[in-house]
Amino acid sequence: MTLQSFENLVPGVMIDAVEAALGIPMGGLAAPLPSYINRVYEFEAIDGTRLIAKFYRPGRWALPALREEHQFVTQCAAQEIPVVSPLLLRNGSTLDVTSDGIYFAVYPKRSGREIEINDDEAWRRIGSLIARIHNVGDDMDAPHRLMHHPLESTGEEIGWLLDGGYISPMCRKPFAQIAEKIMDEIIPLFDDAEYIRIHGDCHRANILERPGEGLMLIDFDDMMIGPPIQDLWLLLPEHAPQSQQEIDWLLEGYTMLRDFDRRSLRLIEPLRAMRMIYFLAWIARQSSDYNFQQHFENWGSDAFWRRETADLELQYAIIRESLN
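The structure assignment produced for this chain is given below.
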């Protein structure tokens, strides 16, 4: 299984793989869907059934980690939580593999529109949905998924950027200094945090409104072990101090179904800093990909790293202010 074989993955190969995995004849439809990391395509069976197949990028998740993602989603579906669960394939699993060793899964197509959060009731609905998912997430562990703690995730990402030579020489020292200051500030805040299985990337584009059916949460690809607040703060319109009303509405819905430790609200701005660093490391890992520069034209330049370092310095100031 190599990245080269993934980049050479063509629709005909994917159609053949899905057909063999399901044991049903497929038509010729192969429509790519937006996804930079994985290959995600819509296919159509001969009987007209529309399907979504996700071919996982090699090297990102090991097989046990993929199984833990599918297990979580399947458990949510079993509790009648509105998620899109992977189909059971002919091999008795929700995962199969191409002849080149690329793992893939097949899902039923579910349509919907990105949620519009226009009033307090919408915030409460979202809070209740996330609480239901967290109740399932609290049932068991997922030892092969990312532990979203500064020492286990952010520290590794900072090291990856510094040791890999991705940061321009002019900005290397300032970046290292602000990263160290952020880590020193936030690590103690996570010492007593609750950690459970969570969605991990719960922003607005991953919550769909299905007319007549309600909300549906999609794309568990970044599922992790983390503090529950991680699945709430990404939805906020502003930094935590400017989003107190939205936080209160979210928690009104959440606490109808699950207890919430309000002390963990202090983690919002630290988690934002962690996501900023995560995104930089995420970009760095793709920097050797074919057509990478088309997506990230300014990557690696002094101007890029000056801007990113300045953003981290500003976020550090916001963290300090939010904790006082």
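Interim note for the steering committee: The chain has a mean pLDDT of 92. The chain has two domains: 3-109, 120-323.
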